[in-house]
Amino acid sequence: MRETSYGLQSWIDRLNQSELPALAAVVQDLQRLTEQEHASVQQLADVLLRDAALTSKVLRVGNSSYYNPSQETIKTISRAIVMIGFDNVRLISLSVSLIDGLLDRTPRQQLQELLARSFHAAVQARNIAGYVLTKHEEEVFIAALLHEVGELAFWGCGGRQADELGEELAGGTDHDEAVEQVLGTSFRQLNLGLIKSWNIGELASFAHGSGNLRDPAAHSVNLGVRIGAAALNGWGCPEMGDLVRELADFGGISEADAMQQILASADEAVSVATTFGASRLCKLIPSTDPEQVQLQQAQRAASLLQPDLLVMQQAMQDLGMMAASRGDVGLILDALLKGLHQGAGLERVMLTVLADQQRSFRVKCVAGEQTQAWLEQFVLPVDPSGQSHIFSYVLRQRQPLWMGVPASNNLDELVTLPLRQQLGKGMFFIAPLMAGTREIGVLYADNRISGRALKHEQFIAFQRFTQLAGRCLDAFGKRN
């Protein structure tokens, strides 16, 4: 396998020859059948029967309540074609092949997010097509599902270069510029190149051009793809309002009905992903439940949170000045939390202080999404021995810790079940806050909202801010 590819043709050759030859062959065989006016049941069955695993998965999906509400058992491909239709069996086969071809490879987060968006777009497009077309709805579904096939293949098979691009994008580099730099081509060109190479059909490439929207099928695909992308910014975002109006005009329905249709399609996309054996994608399809909508918006905002060196330096400078002169406790804590959250890019930060005659840890202040509940609910008994949980342990040991890495594995049992229930699972930073030799409390930070790994630079900043805040509080205590 070639380690590095650069330029459009280089990537198409690599994806076809080294990475995805089996998937490409199935896609091409299934597409050829659509171009034959009288493709037979046997021809479709022959394509599927070459792969026993694919056959069994298609039959499992065909027997699901989504496709087979009558629950009459389907045992053969030919029976599946009779029961649920030639086009549906082809659609299921292609979708299952795509999931198996890409998700079985220790999938990156970018791949899962894009595949979830593609499934959502496909269901939106098919249901939109239902307003304006009498047939070809399955073809519209497939065209929307494979609209970003080149980018999907890259995140699934790009190896070291996919890691490199992920790091560039996480660092805030311009998206298109970073893609061009790492791949030597754009995702748009790679999508179109693979669509052409795999002979996916005119509709998939046709829907890439905004000038082709006079064609109802292409317009349905294009609209579905844009709805899938806009939904990630929230159902109430300005782009979604424009798309609702466009759908209402296109389908000849009211805007209220158009919005209802879009939300119903989003719910249906979750069912489709589950039915096709990709339930892990469901949480990545925007929820229509109001509470979940709020949570997903918070997750998306947090995933975009990046360290800001200017904010971090300013917060450190402010704390340094307050350590040298009398600083108000409120201002000290504000600078501490701002520096960690907005400066170091830590998604959730919590300061617990010793309270109730030093018998418990109570939350003094928080920063970040999903932290307000801690202010009311988080109370932890102090254990003077430091043996019962991680908060008392770090206070006794007086050492900051990075939990969730091999070096701290021996302390995992100190992250007790009640703590996991309050804080979630995964990496976190934790440190004692000391004013000289006086114990103030414990500082906690994590990136649990987006699930991103914590970084060494963030741990260095976390330690530095803890020390500076301690110096400030020590100076404050000596002047009072």
From TrEMBL:
One Pfam family matching this protein: HDOD
Domain called HDOD: residue spans: 20-214
Superkingdom of origin organism: Bacteria
Protein name: HD-like signal output (HDOD) domain, no enzymatic activity
Organism the protein comes from: Stutzerimonas xanthomarina
